[in-house]
Amino acid sequence: MLAEQANLAPGARALDLCTGTGAMLPALMRRAGAGGLVVGLDFSRGMLERARRKLTGTPGVALVRAEAARLPFRTGSVNAVTCSHAFYELKGAEAEQGLDEVARILSPGGPFLMMEHEVPEKPLIRLLFYIRLLSMGLRKALEVMGHEEALFRRHFARVERITTDTGRSKIILASEGRSHAAQASPAPGSGPGNL
């Protein structure tokens, strides 16, 4: 569903932020087609190594080790950015800088799609959900949960919430980065396909 919502045209360039083992990359690549480029970015060498083993021989896919707060791509060089079930791991200033960077690298009108678990409605399941987050050391997630749209509006002019068919996950769709993101100095021009 996340790859579908990205609306990639044939030949598009897409970035999967915090890609982990690269689970999103094949679905994005199917939509970008033979002339497209899909980049999986993560800070974890171990995760990227697992992704590399899984995706060996997949044309049009590149893996990059970098921080979300400092994306090594040129301004306006990416048609769509996705992030699946990993955004809450970015804490405080890193999350804000990451959103600035995503807004900077997106081409005009390009979407940023973040998919995360929805806060459960049933009280017991919601309590267990919060305990799970706390056990992972993600206290910041409790501050962000349910306030994603306000956070994203500080960086993007258009923000929309999409609930998945099952209701267990949500997608925050953001586009049209705010002007301060466009003023950021471009990152070094050395990236996959010179993005």
Mean pLDDT across all residues, rounded?
84
CATH architecture call: 3-Layer(aba) Sandwich
- Alpha-carbon distance between the termini? 26 Å
User: Helix segment count?
Assistant: 8
CATH class: Alpha Beta
Spatial ordering of strands, largest sheet: 3-2-1-4-5-7-6
The figure for the number of domains is 1
Task: Explain how this protein is built.
There is one protein chain. The chain is an alpha/beta fold. The protein has one domain: 3-Layer(aba) Sandwich (Rossmann fold). 34% of the residues lie in helices and 23% in strands. It contains eight helices and seven strands, in the order H-E-H-E-H-E-E-H-E-H-H-H-E-E-H. A seven-stranded mixed sheet has the order 3-2-1-4-5-7-6. A hairpin with a 5-residue loop joins strand 6 and strand 7. The chain is globular, with a radius of gyration of 16 Å. The protein starts with a helix and ends in a 13-residue tail after the last helix.
Present the secondary structure layout.
Elements (H helix, E strand, L loop, with lengths): L1 H4 L7 E5 L7 H8 L4 E6 L2 H11 L5 E5 L14 E5 L7 H14 L6 E6 L5 H13 L3 H6 L3 H6 L2 E8 L5 E9 L1 H4 L13
Parallel strand pairs: 1-2, 1-4, 2-3, 4-5
Antiparallel strand pairs: 5-7, 6-7
Task: Give a brief description.
The protein has eight helices and seven strands.
What structural keywords apply?
195 residues; alpha/beta; Rossmann fold; 7 strands
